[in-house]
């Protein structure tokens, strides 16, 4: 839990009261590798902070799933559109390795908003991070080659990318696994 406090202290200082209101609502959850945290058709009820692990967001398809996001330690993850609208998600979120999350329910977040001044800043910080991740992904797909997208992912998380199966990385950058193999051979 100290990890999430340090994360927030970088941006703003929580009073002891604000931290107590916030931290008493957090629930620590451990998930095994391959666990589906959110399944298409479910309503997302949690905004989660990743203490450790790697998560994949994807649209399930009969032939090949469409991976559109990875989330790593020290960041937020959520089926955020479902979380906000209270409507079913159209995608899954899966643990790619053993993952530890600190989760905050939708109702508890609303309570934090009501009880503290800093609550809105906490919610804003999480939503801004999720929005920026989504924007960067969209701009990357529009402006960069598959090789550039691969190199960016490799630069951002070099030690962790080795733990992501190549078929998910290929899907994420919008190419086949065979094309990814060619890119990897070319740049090595």
From TrEMBL:
CDD domains hit by this protein: CAP_ED
Record InterPro entries: cNMP-bd_dom, cNMP-bd_dom_sf, RmlC-like_jellyroll
SUPFAM superfamilies according to UniProt: cAMP-binding domain-like (SSF51206)
Pfam family, one: cNMP_binding
Domain Cyclic nucleotide-binding, first and last residues per copy: 29-115
Membrane-crossing residue ranges in chain numbering: none
Name of the protein in its database record: Crp/Fnr family transcriptional regulator
Native organism: Paenimyroides ceti
